[in-house]
Design goal:
The protein is an alpha/beta fold. 33% of the residues lie in helices and 29% in strands. It contains 6 helices and 8 strands, in the order H-E-E-H-H-H-E-H-E-E-E-H-E-E. Helix 3 packs across helix 5. It is globular, with a radius of gyration of 16 Å. The protein starts with 13 loop residues before the first helix and ends in a 12-residue tail after the last strand.
Length: 184
Amino acid sequence: MEHLGHPGESVVPPGDIAWLRKTIVERALTRGDYQLSGGVRSDYYIDKFRLFSDPVVLRRIARLFTPVIAHLRPDVIGGTELGGVVIATAVSQLTGLPMLAVRKQPKGYGAFPNEYVEGAYAPGQHVLLLEDVITNATELIAAKARLEALGLQVTPYAVVSRGLAPINALIAFSLPRGDAKTEN
């Protein structure tokens, strides 16, 4: 199943999911021995910035969220620091919806020190909170809690789930463990 959640729930066309899987394998997948952000070890790594640094690929990934937005009808697009902000910015530009950035740590300077959330919002608004690649979704769940504490309704979503977190994603991507390889 490429989409986490209930079978048949995905609103993204299968051809788009096939394109994303192929693009990940061709451009962003590296085999080796890696420690992921949550401390889990893996024999592969998805370098999302190999995808996001190409404006054509980033724009197409942002477009993959169009049916998700039509289905969920959020008021605001949110992004987690750092990769989620890149995706949220592209989706915001594509849809015309305003954007929020949710920091991992509050900034300690400027007009609003000690705040985690950047951007305009109003309590009660629905936020589609975007993340790039998730393994256990710790940061995404923390960002969701920060937004909910501000009175916002939040639907978290990722581009890629490595399959260990119950968060909706465009694609659930995993590879069987095997001999570590160093080439793409």
